[in-house]
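Try it yourself: sequence plus 6-O-phosphono-alpha-D-glucopyranose, in.
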Amino acid sequence: MHDFVVVGSRLPVDRVEDADGGTSWRTSPGGLVTALEPVMREAGGVWIGWSGDTGPAPGPFRANDLDLVGVGLTPDQFRDYYEGFCNATLWPLYHDVIAPPQFHRRWWDAYVTVNRRFARAAAEQAAPGATVWVHDYQLQLVPQMVREQRSDVRIGFFNHIPFPGYEIFAQLPWRRPVVEGLLGADLAGFQRRADATNFLRACRRAVGLATRGPAVRVAEPGGTRKIQAAAFPISIDAKGLAETARSDDVRKRAVEVREALGEPGLVLLGVDRLDYTKGILHRLRAYGELVADERLGRRPVLIQVASPSRERVEAYQTLRDEVEVMVGRINGAYGEVGYAPVHYLHQSFPREEMAALYLAGEVMLVTPLRDGMNLVAKEYVACRNDETGALVLSEFTGAADELAGAFLVNPHDIGGLKDAIVRAANTGPAEARRRMRAMRKRVFEHDVARWASSFLDALSGKPAGSAAGGLLTSDAGSGDAWPL
Ligand code: G6P
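Structure, out:
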């Protein structure tokens, strides 16, 4: 039994096969686990999640000093719940239908079944009066399912991706049970104020509830219960990443990367999961035209890391083909022996290598068509300890609300995107420093630890700014005060 229960779609560890055929677990480095580890330790917490494969459910175990409970997925559930409802229904729907969402009743049934399994595990692990924190779109039914079994616990939910406008959300045949699932929480957190507002609207339209400011009241057997919806923009472990970027090995590696490129002119960088929300094709189109127009000087190089993701889902396969065709066209048309304008890496890299790439890239291109936050933008900023470098950032990311020093772009406007890249590349050192300093201030002051403590303070009903967190009085750069 634990006083603090994190329920996330994935465990913060990866299963690795040992040489002797056994299994061990390696911590997957992520901001979320870094932020929650201290809280987990202090409160004797447990993390419930999926191990990422269709092997046997690991059940409760301990790895790297963390108490974990692994929930397993059968091959059918992997197809219908994970690839289907999570990533071919909800993901495109919540990202403004960039790809058409597919609605299948069998997928929905699997979503209900898997959410129930997570909820049961959470109800079993929670001590009396515990705090249960449920994460992301894969588990939207869990708050209400936990509440039905355990009315004594406090339940928080945080959505890491956007919550769409009602006109889009309304397409979902199961819009009402999804909203009712979320309403099991005491506090529903979102990346941006607009997401929280969209959720409140869905409460009114899909369920017919009245909302008052950031609060919704639902009728329950013993009276009414209040749910708060608010924005808590997530962040990264800025200090930890800056330290990594400061290490001799990483700095040496960044020099090696640049040397390996020959004598590059400008080095631009893109880092994304290979996902259609990320605007990779728009970025390549703009960059390809800039190379053709010779507006980026002699021999510019774009390093594009596109880490493999959801590879059996059709829209991801199509995107991969399109990206690879476009990279091939640009390199074919404008490359020379010993020079390729695009260095495309369909791979994942460890944190140190990523930090070296962030140091090697003078201009970072973050051009999603829609993104809940985009932590890559914040990671780039955290790594630039010498305050050089420029960030080109899509308006359609949560990060754009906070990173006022970026060159903001509409990625659909290829002409505007090209101009912004040229401007970012040609910023004078004084202006570049001013912009980077402002962004670094924001990212270091609002790191992931502060995000977690402000959410947990709000969930426990502490008044604004009472504890170490304090995001409550200074929400995103747009000047919004919390709540809403
Ligand atoms: C986004 C989601 C996460 C998800 C991650 C990777 O960041 O918000 O919940 O875990 O993508 O996607 P995957 O399908 O590999 O878990």
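One thing you can check immediately is this: DSSP finds 16 helices and 18 strands in the chain.
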